[in-house]
Amino acid sequence: MTTGLRERKKLRTRRALGAAALELAVTHGLAEMTVEQIADAADVSPRTFFNYFSSKEEAVVAADVERARDSAERLAERPLDEPVLDSVRAVMHEMVGDAPRSREWIAQVRLVKSEPSLVPQQLAAYAAAEAHLTAVIAERTGLGAQDLYPAVTAAAVMSAMRVATTRWLESDEHGDLVGVVDRVIDLLAVGLQSPPSRAP
Length: 200
Description:
The protein is mainly α. The protein is built from 10 helices and no strands. It folds into 2 domains: 1-55, Homeodomain-like (Arc Repressor Mutant, subunit A, Orthogonal Bundle), CATH 1.10.10; 61-200, Tetracycline Repressor, domain 2 (Orthogonal Bundle), CATH 1.10.357.10.
């Protein structure tokens, strides 16, 4: 999907503001960070900041919205004859393998866990991401956005990725995140009627 120059410039500004907000919040703390500091770091005015975000909290979680949009666009570009979960797996491998964006994602997850005031904004970002993913899955499968399959699949994928990230962050080893992603997608692929057997 192509976008015009004006739209691309707006997207770059939005991303710059979000990246600045996250970095400042991680470095100085959410309470100490100001909208003026975010705007200055992104080289725009505070007035411009409010053209994109209603609060510094919304700006901090903006990267989640961008990641979700990027994931959905990559999913839309996968071969149409590829099973949906295979496409999801491939896209998640790409996203997790993108080191700078993975670091940003991990920093944001950790920040939200330490700052309860960010939870409402995070939930709003997840809801928007889920709706976007539902629409993409509906288009890929030829179903309506109101059908159960696209909605349930999108919700399951979003939940699975949250679990994968949280489990990985809480593990002592901090091993292969791709491996954790694969395990949660495998669970979705085989269904949840029976739990996997434990190795002896």
